[in-house]
Every structure is written in C-alpha cells, then in structure tokens.
Design brief:
This protein is mainly alpha-helical. The protein has ten helices and five strands.
Length: 274
C-alpha cells in the first residue's frame, strides 16, 4: 500500500508501523511546495545572518572554528562521515524502516528548514527498500548523533547498508542496486539531520505495539484458563479494584472473554506462583 502524506501529522504512530511493515510513502505536491517555501526562507536567513552553529562553524569543541566558504559545500556531508563511528550489530530491517519514516516525519516540519529534495531522498530509500546500517547499541554520544550520522552517510553514499542476506555493503553499491542517487546535504541540512531522537521514537513505537499485542494475548490465555476450569468470576468484580482504572479494564476484559459461569466448580480462580 501507499500512504499519501499531506501534513507531518499524517505520519503518525500507526502509519510509521505500516511503513516499517512495507508500506510506501507518497508526499503530496502541496506538502512539497510548503517545504520549498520554508527552505527558501531558511536559505535567506542564513545569507543575512551571522555565524550559525554547525553551518558556518564547527560543532561541539570545534564551534569556535569558522567554516570557510570553499569548505562549506561539502561540510554538511562531512558531518555524517566524521560521526558515523558505530559498528554492528545493526538495527533489523523493520526497525530501520521505522527509523527512516520517523526521521522523515520530523524533517517535514517547516522549522527544520529541510528541502523537499531531502524528504524525497528518504522516500526513495523507503521505496527501494534500502536498509541503512545503523548501530543498534552503544551509541555513546549526546542524543542520537552516531546512529543518525550512519543514516545520513548512507544517503550521501559514503556509509554502509545491509543487504537482504544481512551482509554489510558499501552505501554506493546499495544505492546503485536500488536505483537511488546519492544525496548531497545542503546548507544546514546536515546539522538538522543529526538532531532529535527518531531512532528511540521508532523503536518505542514498535515495542509499544508489540507489548500491547503480548498483553492482549496474555489476557486471552488467562480468560481461557478461567473458562476451562469453570472458576468463579467473583475475583474479577469491578468493586474489587479500589479505584485502579487500569486494573478495572483488565478485570472487565477477563470477565467479558471468560463469560458467565452459573455454577463454578471451584472456590478459587487459577493463579500462577512466582
């Protein structure tokens, strides 16, 4: 399936999970026009302003160093290369797609000043199903600079990808196989790409859904045990939850799934010891 995105909010939790599972993304013409307008305003502000962190200066301890005019065009790409210092194990395929969708979601906000071309470059990665080699553990830096630098390095063709057999391959090779052209980050786009926590967000969205599925399955199994042994339903009465709304929901689900038992054959409901 293909998701039409006209607003950043259209890429919500459910949509990001759908993209992780293989759905494609299509950005509307109106959204791309808005991105182009915000990008033009960003470039105008950069031209008229003074020093800008990570754009005309170095980052971190190098923020006092100015980036020369001759170095500026390649500087945003070099931010990725200098910070993609992680290693395997890499994020799995599904999580990597969720990260791509989550990063795309935040870059669609006008405040980032990202260009429509950068947004479309991420869409192209998803369409071609190119899996970035993003470290799964031990990022060891403020925020998510290291994993996002790996993602950005793939976009620019200087990093790595993971093929369908799980082998690490050069980004240029993976992009060529997928028919995706390497992307050159424009002014401010590199530093914007490294900001935020889309990796943690994507992983949380997937794990949250999986935990809800596991909880629902546990309730179903528990209700089936109650029904099979014909245990009394009294322990799950709403009056016993003492104002705990979550426990009240659990009791209600158990009673609904187990159904009524007019003549229980035991005094105590089944329970598990620790």
């Amino acid at each position: 399936m293909s998701l039409l995105v006209d607003d950043p909010a259209d890429l919500g939790p459910a949509e990001i999970r759908a993209v992780a599972d293989g759905d494609r993304v299509q950005l509307s013409a109106a959204l791309l026009d808005r991105l182009a307008a915000s990008r033009a305003a960003t470039l105008a502000a950069l031209d008229s302003g003074g020093p800008v962190y990570g754009v005309t200066t170095g980052m971190g301890l190098q923020s006092h160093v100015a980036v020369g005019a001759t170095d500026a065009p390649a500087y945003q790409d070099e931010l990725m290369l200098a910070r993609s210092v992680g290693s395997a194990p890499w994020l799995d395929h599904r999580t990597a797609r969720a990260v791509l969708a989550s990063r795309l979601r935040t870059l669609l906000d006008p405040e980032t000043g990202a260009s429509p071309e950068l947004a479309m470059a991420l869409v192209a990665l998803l369409d071609a199903d190119v899996r970035p080699a993003v470290p799964a553990h031990a990022n060891g830096a403020a925020g998510e600079i290291i994993p996002l630098a790996h993602l950005g390095a793939l976009l620019s063709g200087s990093g790595d990808a993971v093929d369908r057999d799980g082998a690490t391959v050069p980004a240029a090779e993976a992009l060529a196989r997928g028919g995706v052209a390497p992307y050159t980050f424009g002014a401010k786009e590199g530093v914007a790409f490294l900001q935020g926590v889309p990796v943690a967000t994507a992983r949380a969205l997937l794990l949250m859904h999986e935990s809800r599925v596991a909880a629902a399955q546990a309730l179903t199994v528990g209700a089936a045990e109650i029904a099979v042994v014909r245990a009394p339903r009294d322990p799950y009465a709403g009056a016993l939850v003492r104002g705990d709304r979550l426990l009240a929901r659990v009791h209600a689900v158990l009673r609904d799934l187990a159904g009524d038992e007019a003549a229980p054959r035991m005094l105590q409901a089944p329970c598990r010891s620790a």
